[in-house]
Amino acid sequence: MQAVIPVSLPQNSYEIAIASHNLDQIGTWMTNETTKKLGKKVLAVSNPTIFKHYGQRVIDSLTNAGFAVSHCILPAGERYKTPATLQKIYDAALEHHLERSSTLVALGGGVIGDMTGFAAATWLRGINVVQVPTSLLAMVDAAIGGKTGVNHPRGKNLIGAFHQPRLVLIDPQVLKTLPAREFRAGIAEVIKYGIIWDRELFDQLENAPRLDQIRYVSEDLLQDILTRSCQAKAHVVSKDEKESGLREILNYGHTIGHAVESLTGYRVVNHGEGVAIGMVAAGLIAVKMGLWDRESSDRQIALIEKVGLPTRLPEGMDLDAIVATLQSDKKVKEGKVRFVLPRQIGSVIVSDQVEAEVIRHVLQQM
Predict the structure, then answer these.
(1) Which of 217, 237, 309, 334 has its CA 20 to 30 A from that of 211?
(2) Do 21 and 168 share a structural domain?
């Protein structure tokens, strides 16, 4: 099974290619017509675990296609998504004499993709990047759309740039080595697409026997999850590349989710778990404001629980600290926090009319 999904943009269009064993075809993909003559120098960026599993396959494919390949290994984990770690990519780019025609290849999950993308956006004022996501979360979300960045100690992704990849290459086979917790984290983003855009996808997830481990997900359902999620993201990004309007809906669950991640030092919950908590909160806020019905909110909570994702705040969280952290969120406009809130499954709105008392009330419930 193969799917090629276009991301149509005024200046930086590219393709998302989804197929089993795509990893071994990266050299072919990077020399075809759609990538428009990438330079011969390539720096592959990964973490130790992913590189051990897949690094040599990527290097061999690129070398066989005529590229001169070097690599840079970064420590794994959200807590290393910092300017200090970013410096390692810059050092490698300098050491290997990368030029403006050169390409960074991000082989890894969302952390590697975000940092490599930001390095590409800023090295020599912008060089090529190819995203090769190896986690479900990165495949359906982080690798697509050109958002890149690193974390500030007081907030997630506060330092960043928009820099579109030249190609997103997805190989579903690599998910077989993904830890179950990371797979569940990716399903959180898939649920997001069901709520904001694709009711049929939400129904498919509800009807699936189990979603907590990849071995219980059929190949057909996995292909549908990847294709429908990528199509949703591609459609939204094509309409709004730099988040001036429609693209804001992709932040569903992320407002409170990012605050929880940040306040727990990126060690207690991972990104998908934060988004799950944030989606529950956004749903309850929407119910409290009379925008959404309780039955739909309960369906969302039931699906999140079915996946094995958290629906409550971690123990001991300071609710005032969460509310305060929301004020430093990237989506704050004129001092008002902007929430993505559901109206029905498959449709959401963006609102800056959520009162602090409503947020506190919902957080107390959780």
Answers:
(1) 237
(2) yes
